[in-house]
Amino acid sequence: MSLPQPFQYQGSKRTLAPLILQYLPISTTRLVEPFCGSAALSIATAARGRAKEFWLNDFNKPLAELLALMINSPRELAKFYAELWHGDHADALEHYYQVREEFNRTQDAQLLLYLLARCVKGAVRYNGEGLFNQSPDKRRLGTQPETMQANLNAVSALLRGKTIVTSLSYENVLANLRADDAVYMDPPYQGVCGERDSRYFAGIAFDDFVAQLAVLNLKNVRYLVSYDGRLGSRSYGKPLPAKLHLTLVEIEAGRSSQATLLGRDEMTVESLYLSPALAEELEVVPTMHRRRRNEQMQMMEKPVPYGKAKIPKRVP
Ligand SMILES: C[S@@+](CC[C@H](N)C(=O)[O-])C[C@H]1O[C@@H](n2cnc3c(N)ncnc32)[C@H](O)[C@@H]1O
């Protein structure tokens, strides 16, 4: 199943989403994403009919506004994008810089869609003054307007009428959960620039995050966290502490192209942690999902039937 993706977003969980959503509670009424970014997991979950409602949140306000427009006004957004894209051909680079300047002045979410479609690696970067400063990708003109329109319509069809979008700091989302919510958290990467990661709009402090998870444990919240990982034998990011009693599922995410270039055959492994309440409900034990050599992500695409099912220890 190909999932709609209107824009690239660095750190997007689009490829891993079909596997991650296998670890959602069997009866998920509402999926909450406090750090939703491009909302890849909610889109995949909606496509599989695995939740009835969604709460998307991201501290980056124009990004949250863009998600709301994608869901509620896809036609208007597609028209705006097409006009901007067609205006781009005389001097594509100069056009990008003009749009970027206008976005920094107005914070207009519609302009952000164009910037994300055209910038290097879909990487959202801001300078110290909070201005979007990512460069254009000189090799790509960005998504064609027709493709963009199809993607926006598809996302809207999946999420419209069942999604709320907010732009709060994640603690305010966690303080307002319902008892039957399932929460997926994919916070900004750790260790790139200390606690603050300039690729994202805000950073989070490790100790605060751990304290928030401990409170969720006391409330028996069913949650999943993508956090640290490793490349070959080297770890990146600080693992979540044992005192949280989380169940670790490791996912081989793919071979590192940079390591391959350097002649090393190293696999990137991402950590997915399940809360005690969720691991108990799903009867999950610590697991490693391996990929066979040259295998694509299709093994991750197998849906788990929507009913009481034990999670396999290893996807064959
Ligand atoms: C790793 S990205 C999430 C990627 C997402 N899972 C996807 O598939 O696209 C982390 C997100 O957290 C947001 N963020 C950073 N600090 C935050 C905070 N304090 N509260 C809420 N969101 C925050 C960033 O703007 C960024 O979009």
Written description of the protein model:
- With 316 residues, the chain is an alpha/beta fold.
- It has 2 domains: 17-68 and 154-301, Rossmann fold; 73-152, Adenine-specific Methyltransferase, Domain 2 (Adenine-specific Methyltransferase, domain 2).
- It is built from 11 helices and 9 strands.
- The chain has helices at 17-20, 40-47, 61-72, 74-86, 92-106, 109-118, 145-159, 170-174, 206-218, 257-261, 276-282, and strands at 28-33, 51-57, 163-166, 181-185, 222-231, 234-236, 247-255, 267-274, 287-289.
- α4 packs across α6, α4 (74-86) runs antiparallel to α7 and α5 (92-106) runs antiparallel to α6 (109-118).
- It starts with 16 loop residues before the first helix and ends in a 27-residue tail after the last strand.
- The model is unreliable at 191-198 and 294-316 (pLDDT under 50).
- Bound molecules: S-adenosylmethionine.
- Residues 9, 11-13, 34-35, 37-38, 40, 58-60, 169-170, 186-188, 200-202, 204 line the site of S-adenosylmethionine.
Order of helices and strands: HEHEHHHHHEHEHEEEHEHE
Main structural class? alpha/beta
Tell me the CATH architecture of the largest domain.
3-Layer(aba) Sandwich
Number of helices: 11
- Note the gap between the termini: 19 Å
Total of domains:
2
What's the count of strands? 9
CATH topology of the largest domain: Rossmann fold
Q: Outline, from the CA principal axes?
A: globular
Report the helical percentage.
25-40%
C-alpha Rg (nearest Å): 19 Å
The low-confidence runs, each spanning 5 or more residues with pLDDT under 50, are 191-198, 294-316
Q: What is the CATH C level class of the largest domain, in words?
A: Alpha Beta
Catalogue the ligands: S-adenosylmethionine
- The averaged pLDDT comes out at 85
